[in-house]
Specification:
CATH topology: Jelly Rolls
Shape: elongated
Mean pLDDT: 87
Strand content: 35-45%
Low-confidence stretches: none
CATH architecture: Sandwich
Distance between the termini: 41 Å
Radius of gyration: 22 Å
Largest sheet: 6 strands, mixed
Number of helices: 0
């Protein structure tokens, strides 16, 4: 029988709303790697004139090694929902939606790595909120079960 503690687990997650004019980040907080399969959040922009561009960057403590973008930019005084899931190509969404470029396999986050969501030209009154997503967790560590053992006898032939 396999150890159920070492099987991938699917979970939804919510992230607390960050401060005004700030992005947010996702870092695995369990003893295993994460595969982000979907992410959605809302960006409300204030009336200051600036075109905002949303980027997702993955880093492992140093410079970002993967950068993903949104399918469109956002102008002043708008509310848009950003949404990405595996294989979404970042095409401009309809209505109040903007799609995020998402790799076909999702976004892999090993333990100690971070997915940071930032807004270029963010203004003092801009607010990101309603952050949630879907992930698979892949536990690591020793398998803590015993394998059956049998004694063996060897005979030498003469």
């Amino acid at each position: 029988m396999t150890d159920p503690r070492n099987k991938p687990v699917a979970r939804t997650f919510d992230i607390q709303t960050p401060a005004v004019a700030a992005g947010f980040s996702i870092t695995p907080n369990t003893a295993g790697d994460w595969l982000i399969r979907a992410l959605t959040f809302t960006l409300v922009t204030d009336a200051n004139a600036a075109t905002r561009a949303v980027t997702l960057s993955v880093s492992g403590g140093g410079a970002a090694y993967r950068v993903l973008t949104a399918g469109a930019t956002q102008i002043t005084a708008l509310t848009r929902v950003y949404s990405g899931s595996e294989g979404v190509n970042g095409a401009i969404g309809t209505g109040g939606f903007i799609q995020l470029n998402f790799p076909t396999e999702g976004i892999w986050l090993p333990v100690g790595h971070t997915l940071a969501v930032a807004v270029e030209n963010i203004q003092a009154g801009d607010q990101i909120s309603v952050i949630n997503g879907y992930r698979f967790e892949f536990p690591k560590g020793p398998r803590e079960h015993f394998w059956p053992m049998v004694t063996m006898m060897l005979e030498e032939s003469s």
